[in-house]
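Reviewers of the previous submission asked for a worked example of the structure-prediction workflow described in the proposal, so we include one complete record here. The input consisted solely of the amino acid sequence. No template or homolog information was supplied to the procedure at any stage.
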Amino acid sequence: MIRALAVVCIVVLGCANNEDRSAPLEPAGAPGVARYVTGPAAARVNSRGLFDLMPPSQNEGVISEFDARKAARAFVNTHRAGLKVLQIDRQAPVDISSLRVCGRPYFARTTFEPEAARIPRGWQRFYGPWWLIQLCNGTGQPQISLAISALVPGIAVAPDGRIKYDSADAEERFRFRGIPAHLRGLPMAPEDAVSLIAEATGRKVVGVPELILPDREYPQMARWRLVLDSAVSVRLVGTSDLVTTDELFVAVTELFAPPLVETPTSSPAGDAVVKYIPIGVMPTSKGSFILETGRVPRRPGVFERRPALIVKN
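From that input alone, the workflow returned the following structure tokens.
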């Protein structure tokens, strides 16, 4: 019997130095997520029933969680008034007066290899890794999801707590979306992703959840990569093709409701899987632009993905 999955749909924008480090809303899987995991994943569940996720390594060359939080606070101080427009995304009010950084930051890894230095920094950030931080109201309800490029070397902050933008290097530092009022957060919590997949498949999750960025969507649409303790059959959406896999990608996305589940469908590491991205933009005399493109290889071991429905075995 084919069982469709149960997670959700989404959507856009991001002064005081306020911050609340508590979790905004407890994920549905906590503290019961322990019954859905084994092996390395189980070892990373803490006493609160939440995952201690793997932090970025020093050789990834990214800003720290501390710096990402600092940048998020400065962003709120700078753009607080304009964030009210995100009530369109939320389908509910945004309490801009009490907005503050809250909950756990998530580090989302890119599927692309590091870009060459000759590629404009804005494009490097667009395709690079991101920190995802939630902004909550005074009661701890997530209202805005703020993505901060992990490749920003440092954000200058004025004495009043606002960002001092360098107009020559302001591209792709922040991306933001309102969090629909019915969601617990954006992206979804890893505990919720694990609970969803474990309940749907009857399998346990063995790999520590890892947040993987989509290719051209907002960073908030990142997928949780989950490795199961044994393979499961899935049917690719829109086809009769069955795939057996122990690896699934789960996300809240604006394109799929209920939540999106994806499965690898391309060849494993070693095959040439590439994407094209702009590597140079030059203005013409008439003000239009000529776009030069180049190839950026994917990281080994990361696959093309297709939406899939789980088939109960």
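The longest strand covers residues 223-236. We consider this example representative of the routine output the project will generate in years two and three.
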